[in-house]
Amino acid sequence: MLSEYEWQAIILSLKVSSVAVLVSLPLGIVMA
C-alpha cells in the first residue's frame, strides 16, 4: 500500500502532466 505522502506525489504529478498536455495540444495544432 502507498502512504499518504506517496499518493499526494502521484496525484500532483498526474495534475502536472495533464496540464502540460492541455497546454501543448493547442500549441501543436497551431504550429501544424
From TrEMBL:
Organism encoding this protein: Arsenophonus endosymbiont of Trialeurodes vaporariorum
Domain of life according to the entry: Bacteria
Transmembrane segments: 12-31
Designated name of the protein: Molybdenum transport system permease protein ModB
Keywords attached to this entry: Membrane, Transmembrane, Transmembrane helix
Organism classification: Bacteria, Pseudomonadati, Pseudomonadota, Gammaproteobacteria, Enterobacterales
